[in-house]
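Many introductory courses stop at the sequence. We go one step further.
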Amino acid sequence: MAIVLGAILVLLIVELDMLKNQGRKIEIIMANLQEFKDLLTRVDVATNNIAEDLKRLAAQVEAGGLSAKDEFEISEALKLAAEKLEAVAAVNPEPAPEPPVDPVEPG
């Protein structure tokens, strides 16, 4: 009987250890998920700021009658916006498309 109880105790300890490991994995996944959400928020804020800059510049161009100085400043601002967008693209490159998956034939 003591051997059986000892074996059950060992199995329970192993199961408890496995549960602890799963708990650690869940904590890591949740931390990674929060980091991902934080990064998405940063990208969203940055792209919204760039969009607002571009809208402002477009409104200035649409208003017409720009001086050479205004044209130069708008041109420089557009170049800066393009550089910002290129920096975002460099940090977040488009993933390679996934190859198509062949359906599994029932067999």
